[in-house]
Structures are given as C-alpha cells and as structure tokens.
Predict the structure.
Amino acid sequence: MKKYFILSGIMMLGVMLSAQNQQGYVKTKGRMVNGKLVPGQGLKGATVYVKGRTAVLVNANDGAFSFPVPEKQFRLDSVRKKGYQLVDMEACPRTYKRSGNPLYIVMETPEQQLQDKLNAEKKIRRNLQKQLQDKEDEIEALKEENKITLEEYQKSLQQLYAEQESNEQLIADMAKRYSELDYDQLDEFYRQVSYCIENGELVKADSLLRTKGDVTLQVEAQLRKGQAIKEQEAQLNQAKTVHAVDQEELARRCYSFYETFTAQHLNDTAAYYLELRSSLDTTNGDWLSEAGDFIREYIADYAKSLEYHEKALAIRKSDFGESHPDVAASYNNIGSVYNSQGDHNKALEYHEKALAIRKAVLGENHPDVATSYNNIGVVYDYQGSYDKAIEFYEKSLDLGKTIFGESHPNVAAIYNNIGSVYNSQGDYNKALEYHEKALAIRKAVLGENHPDVAQSYNNIGNVYNDQGDYGKALEYLEKALAIKKAVFGESHPHVAISYNDIGYTNQNKGDYGKAMVYYEKALSIWKDVFGENHPDVAISYNNIGYVYNMQGNYGKALEYHEKALAIRKDVFGENHPYVASSYNNIGSVYNDQGDDDLAIEYYEKALTILKAVFGDNHPNVATSYNNIGYVYNNQGNYDKALEYYEKALSIRKAILGENHPNVASSYNNIGNVYNKQGDYDKALEYYEKALSIRKAILGENHPNVAASYNNIGNVYNKQGDYDKALEYYEKALVIRKKVLGEEHPSTIKSQEKIAEIQAKMKEKENETKE
C-alpha cells in the first residue's frame, strides 16, 4: 500500500476564484467651455506599466484598459504615450486599492498642460486683482467719509498688501488645481460650482452651494449621525463579541460530535458535524479543508470534497494572493482529490502548481517542497510511469534526508513508496530493501507497536506474496494485523486492509475457504465504517467474486463483481481504471464459463476505458490485450491470439523492461499458442524465455516457475520425449508440494501427469521388450 502523505502542517487549505480585473481609462481632460462640458478624448496607444506584470497596451479608441489584480492592491509604476505627459505627476508611481470603479489616468501634451496652467493663473490673478481693487476702493471710501482715521487707513492698506503678498502661493496652488481638473469626473452640480470659482463668479458659486441648504446645520446633523453610528457600532461590537464566543463554543461542540461519531465509525454523521461547523463560518479555510479531507477519505464523495477544497482555495487566494503556502496547500489537496478520482493529469496539474509556489516562496529545501515531490511521485506511480515516480520520490527522499536526517518517519514514508514502485516493477529484492529501510527507521523512532510499523510489515508481506513465499508473506501480514488490532481495535479500516491482504495470500495459495473468511471479515468492517457505497467495499466484493470464480461458482462470482461495478461507477463515473477492472473481472467470469462473446465484450469495455485514461502504453492496457488474446486462443483463433498477446508483450517490455513477471507471462501465453498450433520448437523457445525470467526474479521455488516447468513438460510429452517430460513434471511437483502443499489442485495435477508419463514410459518399455 502506498502512503499518500502530507508533511508539515498543510491542513490549511483554500479554493480558487480567478483574479479580479481593474478597469481604467487613459484620456485627456474634460473641459468647460462657455459653461458647457467638452469631454476628454481617449488616448489609444498609451502603455500602462503595473508592477509585477507585463505592460498593458491601450488598444481601445476610448482609452479603456484592464488588467487582473490578484491582490487587494496594486502599484502603478508609470503610464506613457508619445507626446503626452501625466496631468497629475503624482498619479504614479503610486499604490492603489483594487476597486470596482474605473481608474482614470489623465494626460495632455506638455504644451497644452503649460497653456492650461498659464490660463488658470491668469484668471486667478485677474480675479484677485479685482478683489484687491474692490477692497482698496472700500478703504478709500471709509477714509473719504471720515469713518476711519488716517492711522487706521494706513494700517488697513498695509494689511491688505501683506495679504496680497501671501496670495502668491495660493495663486500657484489654485492654478495647479484648475489646470489638472478633469471636469469629466465631476457631476453636473460640482462641475458648475468649480467653473464659477475658476472664472471668479464667486457670488454665483456661493448661491449654487446654498441651494443645497445650510451647510453648518448639515455638518452638525452629520456629526450627530456619526455619534449615533458610533454608539450603534459599540453595541454591534458587543454583540459580535458575544456572537464570536457563542460561535466558538458551537464550533467546538460540532467538532466534539464529529470526534464522537468518528470513534464509532459513523462517518456520515461525523461528516455532517464537520459540514455543520463549516457552515458557521464559510470564510474559515481550515474548517472547509478539514471537511473536504474527511469527505474524500471516508465518504468517497469526491465531487463534494472538491467543492470544499475549492471554496477554501478561493478564500486563501482572496486573503493572501496566489503566492502563499496556504494556497499551495489547497492546490496540493485538490490534486489529491483528482488522484482519488483517477484524473491523474488534473492531479499532476494541481500538484505542480503547489510545487511551483512552494519553491518560489519557501525555497528548495523545505518540507512542503518534499511533500510536493512525493505526491507528484504518487500520481506517476498510479499512472504506471514508474521511472518518473522513482525520480520524484528520490527528489523527495534527498530533501527529506537533508531536512530531517536519515531517521525520521517522513524519510521512512518515502522509502516505503519507493519500495512499492520496485514491487510494481517486479524488482522484489529492491522492494524488500526499501521496505526494510522504512521498517528499521519506524521501529527505531516510533517503537514496535505503531501503525506505520504495521504498514511496513504489511508491505513486506505483500512482496513475499508476489514472490510466492506465502509462509513468509503470512508471517509479516499477521504481524501487521496484530499491531493494528492492538492500536485500533477490531473494527478499523486498517485492520480490514490486513484481513484483505491475508485473504489474498490464501487465495494465491489456493486455500479459497480461508481466503473467503478473511475477505468477508474485511467486507464487514468496511461496510460498517464506510457504508455500502465506498471504493473499499467494492474491493471486497471484487475479491469475493474472484474466489467464487476460482471455485467455479460463476453465478455468485458475477453477483459480486456486478456489486463492485455498481459502486465504482457511482463513485468514480464510467471512465475510471477501477470500473475497467470490474469490466475485466466480469469478462474473466464469462470467459471461464465459456461465453466467449460476452467475455470479449467486457474485455473491450475495459480496454476502451484504460486507453482513454492511460493512453496506449500502460501495463493495464497490456493486461486487457492479454485477456482478449486469451479468449481468441481458447476459440482456436490463433492468429488473433498472437496479435493481442504480442501487443501486450510489446507494451510490457517497453514499460516494465525485459525482466518482469508480466513479460514472463506474455512469453508463456505466446508459447501456449505455438504449442496449440503444434509448433513445438517455437513453444519451447517462449516457455524457456518465461522460465528464465521467472527464475531470475522469483527464485526457484515459486508457483509460476512450477507452471513453466509444467508447460515445458507438456511440449516434451507431445513430442514423445517422455524422459524430458518426466524431468520437468517432477521439477514442477517438487515446487508445488513445497510452496502450495500436498492438497493443492496444482500439486495433485502434477502427480497425475507424472503417473500418466510413467504409464506411457512403461507401455513403451513393454512394446520394446516385445
């Protein structure tokens, strides 16, 4: 079993919204001419430079532009158009908040902007000069009428001229303001007010402003409203504090219910309370992601799991932007869902997004980067791309050893995964080497009675099972089972895995009764924990169906395989490798029943799915070709059989290499066709290729080696070379008695063949004597 592990706190997950766009316009100023607005013109061809992204070229005639803004704010570095300058030189560089309102960038030619400034200054000077003249006349009138003394008269003029000197800064400020004013951005009322002020029509401006009411009274009213709002906000904040305390308590209670029902393996109810907690705060990425993880792992509702993870991702991206570890964590977990669904390309896409962010933000030497390498390796492993899987696992391993040192559970987990790949490749010695490395670390760090130690025992047992050393396999599988039962109790999914694997080993031994007992134990636990509609329940139905098939109870076999198929189609949809597996198994039952047409129909359904999911060159596609070839061989259509067997062989050699058990199986099957055709030399050539690979990989004492000896014996028997036939039959018998026991059907068959050959040899000897 591969471990799809997550390092260092990436339970903070999130969902994805696309970046929001900031709209804007590059334009000239809107102007007032004779009291009427003359709108500004769009500046097509301007270039907007925003920090962190490529330049935005303005192509629209109205000067419109837009660009994505993933963060809450952005920095405008500059805006350029040949022959134009910014009206407000402080418009950039400047940081702006992202807004739903457009951003206006106003530009003019330098000549026009200078002229506008001079015109504004001229108007202001004239207005101020007029005001100065009016005040001088007013003071003169007071003096003429003897209403002020000479001294007061002189003092009033001095004060007036002093104020005039200080107006120079005012003139400059007002000229700047009015030369930069874009009347397009004012509503009609303030457009008219500004125009009156700019042109010195102050009485009219005052009159316009007073039409809105007494501003003093309105300000006082506004202040009272503000105070009332503050009081309401204080009450609201107090209510929010109480609400937050209540919410925290409710969330804690939901989580406690979740833990209670999880401990009882009532997963639907446990999931309900996680979802209920998430509904309390739909912006809490932690809660959303925890619900998504549980639903993926225990409910197998991948669509709902994906929904939660994507909501979490959207929150993370909104809060932190794209380049943040929490966003990477969300991508990672979405990748995990897609991998569970069998959509490996999507899984890779999201895991690679996570990796890119983690490397950019955290640097190369970080545990989360090691996690991404590992999880990409897992996807390649499921795809059957074993070299790529090893490549990424080893990257993860190198990083893990650098960060944690050799003796760390995460390093052990990677050794475990590499061992699983070597086992898939048929390199059992390498597989054992890596699983034993993982076991040694886990025992040293975690102690004997730990689930990870049990996992290592389990995986070592599975390697021995594949090697045909069933005694060793059962020894390790039972060690794993004992630990799991001690740690988890009887009714736990990990215990069910051990029961399933022990059942599988007994099945391979030919002890179908024991296999059925263990498969049914696994089924009982999985149904109790997960309910009926779960992929692991489908695995049990599938395995029980296989045992019934081997026992010749084809009706029961079909019943269980169809149960498995129904669950898989409901959970995964039609186009998934597990659905293809069920079609394949149903095809095998029809094949064993002798219903070749239905067998071909189901094998081809499996083949169609597998080619759509994996492409033409995948070990599972080779298996489908092999199965179709088997049917044609049984039908006596030997040319078709060879065609499909050779397709299978070609894929297996390309992907798995020459020395792999499945390649040996292909050589064996091609040998069977030549044997049936009576081409005994060709048959022996292929059988001996199969035997050579099997002995090299599996050792001498393996049922498949015995099968090769038996097949070679059959050829010599047909050729009448009874001495050679007896030699190979006896080799097969020795192995079968040792590995499978005296009572196994294969052992009994070997004994019968030996007896048959001995009788032929006796008969031949008697004929010679006569």
User: Anything to note?
Assistant: The first strand starts at residue 20 and ends at 27.
